[in-house]
Fold:
Amino acid sequence: MAPVKKKQATRRKADAPARGGSGAGNEKGEMLDRTAMLTMMIRIRAFEMKLAELVRNLVIKGTAHPYVGQEAVATGVCAALRPDDYITSTHRGHGHALAKGADMNRMMAELLGRQTGYCKGKGGSMHIADLELGMLGCNGIVGGGMGITVGAALSVKLRGTDQVSVGFFGDGAANTGITHEAMNLAAAWRLPAIFVCENNQYALSMPIAKAVAMPDIAARAAGYGMPGEVVDGNDVMAVWAATRRAVERARRGEGPTLLECKTYRWLQHSLRVKGPDRPAEEEAAWRAKCPIARLRRQLVQEKLLDDAGFAAIEAAAAKEVEDAVAFALASPEPPLEEIELDVYAGGFIE
Amino acid sequence: MTISQGQGSTSGAPAGMRVREITYAEAIVEALRAEMRLDPRVFVMGEDVGAFGGIFGATKGLLQEFGPERVRDTPISEAALIGAGVGAALTGMRPMVEIQFVDFTACAMDQIVNQAAKIRFMLGGKANVPLVIRTPYGTGLKLASQHSQSLEAWFVHTPGLLVAMPSTPADAKGLLVTALRDPNPVIFLEHKLLYPTRGPVPEEQYTIPFGSADVKRPGKDVTIVATGLMVSKALAAAETLAAEGIEAEVVDPRTLVPLDKATIIGSVKKTGRLVVVHEAVKRGGFGGEIAGIIAEEAFDYLDAPIKRVAGKNVPIAFNEVLERKAVPDVEDIATAARSLVG
Structure:
């Protein structure tokens, strides 16, 4: 890294539209590209639905945790971020990675354990990361990214830039000790962190109502001295708007925010494991709140999109996914010497 | 740094430098201060490391020079501290986290083992985690079972971590400078009885490479490999043995990962006898690793069985006598060496 400089050159003009896959607006939201957000959600869903098939057919070994149904959270949050902002993610992290601009080919190759993947096939589904995109990593440990979120925010403060650091976590992670420690530390030090709880109602089989006495995780924010907000996690515009408020607050140096995005995981916890069974009417009710259908309706109503336009987005996403699978399948497996590479910077230690 | 192995030096402090006697704690402060002056990415955080200067005084005076942004007193949140260290390290900083007692690393083990140690590998080598975790270990202050452990084997058993155990003020300074410049996570273990001990330390900043054992005393009859505080006990035992006509060679690995196998094997080839000494409990301890290496790679040179002198397989008791008897003393080491030579 270059020597620490005050207000690094990474700082962007306030009114410059964000780059990156999600498309986003200027600081006033006027240039927000909702079609780009819809496209991102469709890409995430297409990717995840393909994974279900690939895991079933053993093209993907091991497992993957599907994000279907929760697309609005990753998309809305990342649309409010700049390319140089940081995110940490979870075991259910493909959506976050794509929304932060990750390349689908390299993601798919990683899921297939190939040398061309983000981690050369050594990380797999749960460890996709791209530091150049500010994507500091998915994480196999529930709550494992929370401290890293705080550390990236601390680094921002010490380097004197105005980046922000977003930590995605689930309702399950909400009950781990480090989540508490991390939120308290971020608040005590007024760090530019945003904690985004994706409350998808279940920690594997454990319903949130049995895991906590309080209905809202966001209510905990008061205990840390930061704002907390419950957000409709299936409304990408609501997620984007809430994140933007939190981002502005963080960039002004006013400290962290806790957002709780209520949403629902449509598929099983892990693609390799059946179930757990949930009430059919509950699943149906949440599927009726599909975040993609919702934004599509809005855009159609406003005559910004027609059926043909929607079909074209879907077709492009499907092709991108098929191309990614082809890329991954054509990619080599990592050579055996990779076993001992990358353990230590500077070389392998016997 | 470039990780180097097998460079066994026999010197104390590097030659040609202005040397004076300071304590082990002061040597650590010197290393931190000089690196913080040199490198704005280096910062310090931990419980009571600011105005209080650290519970053993190893960050004394840093707050006054560098201010509260770079010398950060923290809440009692070991997991978040290590996690924050990892996050800061991933994003361009070089954090040094002090964990007040090594026993408390248990509260942060996920962050050390699953995050800090594995991120580089899991990401296919695209990330470095230049994080130093300094922490006191060991018995001697009557602090009972949860403030007296020697836990180096936990970290040695975790690929991705480097592990240092300096036994003298000069080694502490040189190894800590190396740790602070290294791109890997380093567990830096300081025996709490060593902090007030004095020794010659160069005023200048210098580095001691990791993977470079130090022969603290040459000898031809028996090799004693000892770590941390046990180095001084091994040297005392060597004095006793010398009076009896037994010349013990005392080897201090200084870092357990990487380990300078060449110096240890070379010494055993010369003496034909090996005693391994550590304060940590014997079962699953690092002494077994050294014994295993010698059994695999230098068995033909052994004239006697390998002896391990280590802590009893028990938690540390509060009572002073029980505490003292749970870990090796000078006579235990001398007895073991004598039994091999006799």
User: Anything to note?
Assistant: Chain A touches chain B through 54 residues (CB under 8 Å). Strands of chain A lie at 86-88, 165-170, 193-199, 202-203, 206-207, 228-232, 257-262. Residues 310 and 343 of chain A are 46 Å apart (CA to CA).
